[in-house]
Design a protein that fits this description.
Elements (H helix, E strand, L loop, with lengths): L14 H23 L3 H8 L3 H7 L7 H10 L23 H10 L6 H8 L27 H12 L1
Length: about 160
């Protein structure tokens, strides 16, 4: 039997494939949110002032455009963000990172709405007593580290030992 050759993730084959994957992730997020909140496609059709057939077409990843994503997101009560990132995979061997990863990380950081809230999550204020002035306060250096389960940590340690 001939061994299959890997030439990277399937989304590395074309811009259309990559776009399709991103649109599919987006649609999955909208559908999951709509299901949790009891929003039907009929509800979306009313909110978007479109026919039910047209709304169904909007949920085809091949039909997704940025303006369509914003309209569907708003009709679903969600906001949309377009994110560029560097994951040290310029040849796209692993495909795009699923958008749910970004969402879960944002939630884990307390869902900050701006850089001030993000900073507060990263560097919480420590009350040092009334005698010390804010000017003498030295900010501690924190490193963001993912929360890793004990089993994953043990697996990583075992892998580095071998």
């Amino acid at each position: 039997m001939e061994k299959l050759k890997s030439h990277g993730h399937w989304t590395s084959q074309s811009v259309e494939d990559f776009t399709y994957r991103i649109a599919s992730d987006f649609i999955a997020q909208i559908e999951n949110s709509n299901e949790r909140h009891g929003i039907t496609r009929t509800d979306l059709a009313v909110r978007l002032k479109r026919s039910l057939g047209r709304v169904s077409q909007l949920f085809n990843p091949s039909n997704m455009r940025l303006s369509t994503a914003v309209q569907v997101g708003q009709a679903s009560g969600m906001k949309i963000a377009l994110i560029a990132y560097d994951d040290n995979d310029p040849q796209n061997q692993n495909g795009p990172i699923n958008s749910e990863i970004f969402y879960q990380c944002w939630r884990a950081m307390g869902a900050p709405k701006d850089f001030f809230e993000l900073r507060e999550q990263m560097f919480p204020v420590e009350f040092m007593g009334w005698q010390q002035e804010a000017a003498t306060y030295e900010e501690k250096q924190y490193t963001l580290a993912p929360r890793i389960s004990a089993r994953t940590q043990a697996g990583r340690q075992a892998a580095t030992v071998n």
